[in-house]
Every structure is written in structure tokens, then in C-alpha cells.
Amino acid sequence: MEHTNGGDTSASAQAHSNIALAKYWGKRDAALNIPAVGSISITLDALHTDTRVTFDAGLTKDELWLDGREQQVGRAGLVLDLVRERAGIDLRARVVSENNFPTGAGLASSASGFAALAVAATAAAGIEATPRELSVLARRGSASAARSIFGGYAELHAGESTDGNDSFAEPLLDGDAWPLSVVVAITDPGQKAVSSTVGMQATSASSPFYPAWVESAPADLDRMRAAILAHDLETVGELAEHSCLALHSLMLTTRPALIYWNAATMSAIHAVRGLRAGGLPVYFTIDAGPQVKALCLPADAAAVASALTLVPGVQETRTSVLGPAAHLVAVP
Ligand code: ADP
Ligand code: DP6
Ligand code: CO
């Protein structure tokens, strides 16, 4: 809700994290943050960001408060600049945000964080934006955030234009049309040593596998889209594990190497494969961090969570259903 108070304008939004089943890694334009390959994700109900943006004539610079601590404004300032430009305003903003899960740990805080910021900042500036425009705006903050504008299953297009305006996400399938669950096994909630942005820059500059990734990803993306539309869990799972392992092969062959896994990550991978060998349809995926996400049917989620809780080094599990689109919430 937009809310005016003595010349200040505020809005609050909530957005959910997402995990890619067909991964993005590498940019075709770093300045505009345009991904080199398309990606497909599911939105996670259990992991979300709440962000309030206030444009305030009393501020001389933008502020970002994350989980109660002031941070460098960084790319949030870029998103605010784009909003100010469109709204024709020159006020600085205070951004106050909370993630209900670890930040910078491979759980896509940049996805929910920049999606919530795009929605809240646009509303606080008093301008209208279509979901597609919000997706492009969120992408400038973090490409995975383009997907968190939408709920359920979403696809982010790499696009072809030089301005990046055709690199947006769009809904692929409603979450209700094919409910799945994700059990997140947290092995280390600490912040990653190398951010996704810096890591993928190093990969594209140094991994000999990078050209093969850019060449092979589109066909895998097509297969993933078709398997999701067919509600074919076995194929989705096989493709998701392949995309995850191809991504981590890129990371391992980056110089210097990016090793986001720890011992518990590997143990959890084997636990998922063991469950599957025992007849349970469950598949793993891992982003730029040591946490393992297990994809399964909602009816199997409790059994998957119990098994992953027993894996040495797994500190906590969080079970999620598919989440909703980013949305405005009432300003408290
Ligand atoms: P992750 O795996 O969590 O997405 P990234 O390296 O991609 O890790 O991004 C982490 C960065 O995203 C943080 O250091 C911060 O700059 C930004 N970020 C995370 N949460 C928020 C938020 N709620 N609001 C604004 N920026 C955020
Ligand atoms: C491994 O979207 O966090 O999670 O665009 O530089 O902010 P920036 O990177 P980010 O990278 C996500 C990488 C990934 C795979 C994915 O989510 O597609
Ligand atoms: Co991220």
C-alpha cells in the first residue's frame, strides 16, 4: 500500500526466494546484468524477504538496513536510481529489509531481496509498472530476482536485445497446477566467501567449461520447460541434478577454484541418491552455497526431511511448498 506521511512516501512488499531447476551462471552483459543463459525456477513459500521503502526529503543519501544493520547500498542504489528516473523524482530513500533466512548463503536472498525492493520502491515512488517491467527492474539488482516477481514455476529469458528489455521472467506454470515440495538442508548458514556476482564473473573469465555451458544450456532449458509442463517429476529431477552438477563443474574449474560445498553437502547428496535408490522420488539441487535442496512430492516431504536431518553436518531443515508472486503488503 502506498502511504503518505508529511511528504514521505512509503510502500512495503514481500517476495519469496526461488531455486533454479535450470540454472543461470554467467552474464552476456555485466553492466545491465543480462544473463548469458535462460533459467527456470520454483518460488519457495518458506523463504521470504519483507522490504519497506521510504522516499524521504530529509535524507541526503540512500540507506539500506538489512536485518537491523546498516549495509552498503550497492546495487539497491542502482534499482532506486532506475525508479527515480522513471518517476521523475529526486528524493533519497531508506530501505529497511528483513530476510527470514540466512543472507548470502546460497538460499537466493538476492532473489527475494531485489524482487521485494523493485515492488516496494516502484509503489513508494507512486508509479505503475507491469509485472514484466518489475521483472526487468529486479533483474538489474540480481538476475535471479527477475524470477521472484512471479510465484510457482517461472522462466527467465536471456533475451537478445542489447538494452536487456527482453530479458525478463514470466510465469511458466502455476504452483497449484503441480504442487511440489522442497526440503532445504542447511549445512552452514554463514555468508559465502565469494558472492554469486563475483563468482560467475571469475567463471566466465577462466573456466574452460564455460563455452560448453553456454552452448548446452539452451537445449537443457527446453527439456526442463517441457518436463515441467508435462508434470514429469523424474525428468525434471534428472535435468535439475544435471544442471546443478554442470554449474558446480563450472565453479570447480574456475581459477581460483570456487568450492561452495562442504562435507555435509556431499553427504546430503548421497542421502538423496540413497532415498531414490530405495524407491522415493527425490532429487537434489544446490546453488552458490553449501545448502542442499531436495525436490519431492508434498506427500514425501516429511520422510525426506527426517532423512536429511540425520545426515551428519546438516544443522537444520526447512520444508517449503511453492510460493506466491511478489506483492505489496500494508505499511505497518
Ligand atoms: P544469495 O545466495 O543469498 O543470493 P548473493 O551473493 O547472490 O547470495 O547475494 C547476496 C547479496 O544480496 C547480499 O550481500 C546483499 O547485497 C543482497 N541482498 C540480500 N538480501 C537482500 C535484501 N533483503 N535487500 C537488499 N539486498 C539484499
Ligand atoms: C547459482 O542471481 O545471485 O543461484 O545476478 O549476479 O546477482 P547476480 O547473481 P544471482 O545468481 C544466482 C546463481 C544461482 C543459479 C540461479 O539462481 O539461477
Ligand atoms: Co543470489
TrEMBL record:
<keyword id="KW-0547">Nucleotide-binding</keyword>
<dbReference type="InterPro" id="IPR041431">
    <property type="entry name" value="Mvd1_C"/>
</dbReference>
<feature type="domain" description="Mvd1 C-terminal">
    <location>
        <begin position="182"/>
        <end position="311"/>
    </location>
</feature>
<dbReference type="InterPro" id="IPR036554">
    <property type="entry name" value="GHMP_kinase_C_sf"/>
</dbReference>
<dbReference type="InterPro" id="IPR014721">
    <property type="entry name" value="Ribsml_uS5_D2-typ_fold_subgr"/>
</dbReference>
<dbReference type="GO" id="GO:0004163">
    <property type="term" value="F:diphosphomevalonate decarboxylase activity"/>
</dbReference>
<keyword id="KW-0444">Lipid biosynthesis</keyword>
<keyword id="KW-0067">ATP-binding</keyword>
<dbReference type="InterPro" id="IPR053859">
    <property type="entry name" value="MVD-like_N"/>
</dbReference>
<dbReference type="GO" id="GO:0005524">
    <property type="term" value="F:ATP binding"/>
</dbReference>
<dbReference type="Pfam" id="PF22700">
    <property type="entry name" value="MVD-like_N"/>
</dbReference>
<dbReference type="InterPro" id="IPR020568">
    <property type="entry name" value="Ribosomal_Su5_D2-typ_SF"/>
</dbReference>
<dbReference type="GO" id="GO:0019287">
    <property type="term" value="P:isopentenyl diphosphate biosynthetic process, mevalonate pathway"/>
</dbReference>
<keyword id="KW-0443">Lipid metabolism</keyword>
<feature type="domain" description="Diphosphomevalonate decarboxylase-like N-terminal">
    <location>
        <begin position="15"/>
        <end position="169"/>
    </location>
</feature>
<dbReference type="GO" id="GO:0005829">
    <property type="term" value="C:cytosol"/>
</dbReference>
<dbReference type="Pfam" id="PF18376">
    <property type="entry name" value="MDD_C"/>
</dbReference>
<dbReference type="InterPro" id="IPR005935">
    <property type="entry name" value="Mev_decarb"/>
</dbReference>
<keyword id="KW-0456">Lyase</keyword>
<dbReference type="InterPro" id="IPR029765">
    <property type="entry name" value="Mev_diP_decarb"/>
</dbReference>
<comment type="similarity">
    <text>Belongs to the diphosphomevalonate decarboxylase family.</text>
</comment>
<protein>
    <recommendedName>
        <fullName>diphosphomevalonate decarboxylase</fullName>
        <ecNumber>4.1.1.33</ecNumber>
    </recommendedName>
</protein>
